[in-house]
Design a protein that fits this description.
Shape of chain A: elongated
Largest sheet of chain A: 6 strands, mixed
Largest interface: A-B, 83 and 83 residues
Distance between the termini of chain A: 23 Å
Oligomer: homodimer
Number of helices of chain A: 16
Number of strands of chain A: 21
Structural class of chain A: alpha/beta
Chain lengths: ~500, ~500
């Protein structure tokens, strides 16, 4: 489908056509998938063992010793695959970097993953030690039996490995290595120049990443960034996501009397900040799901028929989701989950004013607070959205202040509010039908023999803006693990069927 | 001022005229005030000592032993004033009852006070023991010096007695006794039949009072109930309040997804209960202070010119109140505090949904809760208001449920809310220009030589509905203690100037 809008971009189409021709060497079609599947089948135990060895090295970002051991272990793993591997030191944990130039390759792909994991509460884990991987014949919740890891020679797709970072995010790193092995074993190799960067503090906010990306700009430059992190679509099908929403967290406080006052003695006389907050919040978003802040949707074009088809193709099970979450209907009846993710949100994530329940007192409260978050799309950067929200509040007669009001401020302004924010993370989105977008889609389709689930944008936020904004090249996400992996929680796990399939996925990415 | 409305009630006017003639024996004009003032002047030390002796008996409602000792002590005190005194047993703490019939008296006044006090945290008190009264030469907060109590012979009006129940509510009981003594000392006596009932569990909710009022209906019947409790107007002038608002506490819960869901993954798709609650609350009351619940103000007539004049005469200091509370203006600019108290409120006393501040998480919350209270006026009884609020919520498309929703309920209804309530307390109001209202006003004016501050209705709630509703006779409140008495808190205190003046007030009530 070529839309009218696309026809106005002849150069883009030409570029896409050239890229697609270059991207499809005759020898590497579905046969790559078959080759890799066979390799995985033959080397199951060794591949799992390599992952288990990596999982045994504790990797909480604050554990500098463990982090350093992980980093050095990873340098060695990449080196064994013929990559020039090294540590890139940063102000925080080191980046692990590897590069492999491929003669004749016309483009360079940078793979991003992270080797640190979420903090752990060991006692909350089945095995009491999240860095002692355990193999179960299925899900822990279903009472699956344990298998001794060290003597295992064959595993089943439904078996699961329980350990911190099993799925988030060490499995994709090992899968990428296994894919390189599988290609080498068949006398094949990557068709693109490969760069790999492994973040050592993603779960701690990747604070060193922005300066490091600037510092190592030459090593980290590429034609395309591929983030190998996160779970596939819940259907389990290979998945590619072309973008992710950003986020701007906020907190809004509306002020009433200096202290709570008796609701009998002063009710109807002392202005109630909880009611004022209710009106202010209600003024921001109507009951039909539309944000009323002026300019909130500026720059967002309606989806083209092609884009609409793309999001309609995502095999979400709306009825199951509603049942799971105990909902009669979504916020906008008839609008799908994917359609809902294409536009920014204004979400109330918390409310507080005085007390409810047994602790409630009969007062007019002194203040009312709403914790908010704006999920951003590419067209709506954080700073601009923050400015629009501030203006909305001011237009409703509020004096915006940056600390609790003093006496003079209280006397001068009937409506006082404070809006506090932390730095936001912008969204990114690579056009699915851009040359890069098509390359990844086709790469995955070719090795798997079926098209991947294509997600135009993830609803959540991925902190890769430093790459996209600083280095200026496009990015896609290729998530590979099971969606029910207990990500960030105790008993994080990896379904081995997903893991083995992800090796095929990685081979597809290496041979785009 | 006789309004058109009043002219339509000739019988009422006739009754009022008859009552007023009967109420003004020639001998008892301002001279009663002078007589009592002289008596108080001459017997200061003895009067204070009688109060101190009573304060030394611990009186927390849960302390059955202490309560019983108080009750027996009070029976003796009343007996010494020539009253037929006894305990009226209830399902809880006993009522202390006293009666004195006056030959020739045409009406009976029932005085209500309470002899129990709020619970105490002894360590929080200056003297570490709230039942060991301490005499200070002024306010504790101002560093006033202590005077030895047992050797005191003269006191100053600004001196204060610090003890639990010094002001709430033992002082009015002792003042009433002292007024009887003062009248007797001058060869005078009450001109009305006097009945006194002293509640032993007011601070614990007066739960035994409703059945007790029914059981002792004959003893507790009267032409007028006078509640002697609470602080005077902040100006310190003698005060009479003709009514008090009631209260209906409520809690409103609006439901979202079964558990909080990720605000990125599901934002714009999962309905947000905090936003729904904001809209629902905003729909209930506008930003100009008007409640929008249908029929909320039904039955409330505009104030007559006479009533408007009455509330305008209350010497509230609006500028001082705004400054004290840190407000630029009241909820309805230009509307006085007293005007605000004449109509019911719909007050949000608390809000809660997920978390704000450091604990905030990026989720769509599972529920949002508002704690509410409706302050009632005489025309708006609790049950009817509750029904109107329920109807308002239902008219906005909510299914009202009485517990957390089950799966079937969640699937069937997009809007789910729960409204929970405890039994309300109704308002009461005696027309200030009714015979009873005028009797009290004139009685106080006569003994003090100045008109009392007349409060058409207190904003807060007084639990005397059992009398008004069960026995069907009118009530007024005559508060007498200093407004800064630390009521219900540690270091409760009584300003002796207020106490001595209250003896004159009691004499006025006894000789109406």
């Amino acid at each position: 489908v070529v839309t009218a809008a696309r026809l106005r971009q002849p150069r883009l189409i030409l570029l896409a056509a050239l890229w697609l021709v270059a991207a499809r060497p005759a020898a590497q079609t579905r046969s790559v998938g078959t080759v890799v599947e066979r390799h995985v089948e033959a080397h199951q135990a060794a591949i799992v063992r390599e992952l288990v060895d990596l999982l045994r090295i504790p990797n909480v970002a604050a554990d500098r010793d463990g982090i350093r051991r992980n980093a050095e272990h990873l340098v060695a793993m990449l080196g064994r695959r013929g990559m020039a591997a090294e540590l890139l030191e940063t102000s925080g944990n080191p980046l692990v970097y590897g590069e492999r130039r491929v003669p004749g390759a016309v483009r360079t792909v940078l793979f991003y993953a992270h080797y640190d994991g979420q903090p752990v509460v060991p006692a909350a884990w089945k095995q009491q030690d999240p860095f002692s991987p355990v193999l179960l014949e299925g899900r822990l919740e279903d009472g699956a039996r344990e298998r001794p890891l060290d003597s295992v020679t064959r595993v089943e797709p439904d078996w699961r490995l329980y350990a911190r970072s099993a799925s988030d995010d060490k499995a994709p790193i090992v899968a990428l290595c296994a894919a390189l092995d599988a290609l080498a074993g068949a006398g094949l190799g990557p068709t693109v120049n490969v760069r790999i960067v492994l973040d050592g503090e993603e779960e701690a906010g990747s604070r060193s990443l922005v300066p490091a990306v600037r510092r190592y700009r030459d090593k980290l430059s590429a034609d395309l960034l591929v983030v190998i992190d996160g779970p596939t679509h819940s259907s389990g099908r290979p998945t590619v996501a072309f973008g992710a929403r950003g986020i701007q967290p906020l907190e809004l406080t509306v002020y009433g009397p200096r202290t709570g006052v008796h609701s009998g003695n002063y009710g109807n006389w002392a202005p109630n900040p909880a009611l004022a907050l209710a009106h202010l919040l209600a003024s921001m978003k109507d009951e039909r799901g539309r944000v009323l802040v002026e300019g909130f949707y500026d720059g967002i074009a309606p989806l083209s028929p092609e884009e609409a088809r793309l999001i309609d193709e995502v095999p979400d099970d709306a009825a199951l989701m509603l049942k799971t979450f105990g909902l009669a209907q979504p916020e906008v009846p008839g609008r799908s989950l994917q359609a809902s993710l294409q536009i920014p949100t204004l979400n109330i994530r918390g409310l507080a004013s005085a007390h409810v329940g047994a602790g409630a007192r009969t007062i007019v409260p002194d203040r009312a607070v709403a914790a908010l978050d704006i999920r951003l799309v590419k067209e709506t950067p954080a700073d601009a959205m923050l400015a629009k929200l501030r203006r909305h509040i001011e237009l409703r007669g509020y004096r915006l202040i940056d600390r609790d009001p003093d006496d003079a401020t209280r006397s001068a302004h009937a409506r006082l509010a404070r809006l506090t924010s932390v730095p936001g993370t912008n969204a990114f989105r690579t056009p699915p039908d851009s040359p890069e977008g098509r390359l990844v889609t086709d790469g995955l389709a070719r090795v798997h023999g079926e098209p991947p689930v294509r997600i135009r944008t993830l609803g959540g936020t991925v902190p890769i803006a430093p790459f996209v904004e600083t280095l200026g090249f496009p990015a896609v996400l290729v998530p590979t693990v099971n969606f029910d992996n207990n990500q960030h929680e105790e008993n994080e796990n990896l379904r081995l069927g997903h893991f083995f399939k992800s090796i095929v996925t990685m081979a597809g990415l290496l041979t785009m």
